[in-house]
Amino acid sequence: MKVHDFRELEVYKKAFDLQQKIFELSKTFPREEQYSLTDQIRRSSRSIGANLAEAWKKRKYPAHFVSKLTDSDCEQAETVHWLNTAFACGYITKDIYGEFVLNCERIGRMIGVMIRDVDKWCV
Predict the structure, then answer these.
(1) Does residue 33 form part of some domain?
(2) Cα 67 from Cα 38, distance rounded (Å)
(3) What is the pTM of this model?
(4) Nearest one of 74, 79, 72 to 58, comparing CA atoms
(5) What is d(CA 74, CA 27) in angstroms, rounded to the nearest whole number?
């Protein structure tokens, strides 16, 4: 199947789903975390998909495409950091932590495949 729009990418769908789940999860964080952990984890998780969308539009330029994909991968790693923090602070359970980190890692692997196969994606 030929992909015509970034919203058709499986990795984008997974990133968008992750950002929505993190938004719901972060509603349970303590109020005193609103301007630190809550804002940061929401921002980084939302940036995964945003950078994928930007990368898609930069497919004419392989170096720019890879750069935006790398930014997306960095945002998923940052999201893992904030999940580590939430877990260490006792805001999320081990099971929730494991599920969310696994989702981030899957997204990271998918981004890695896109970077590796850049010629397949660029026009």
Answers:
(1) yes
(2) 27
(3) 0.96
(4) 72
(5) 24
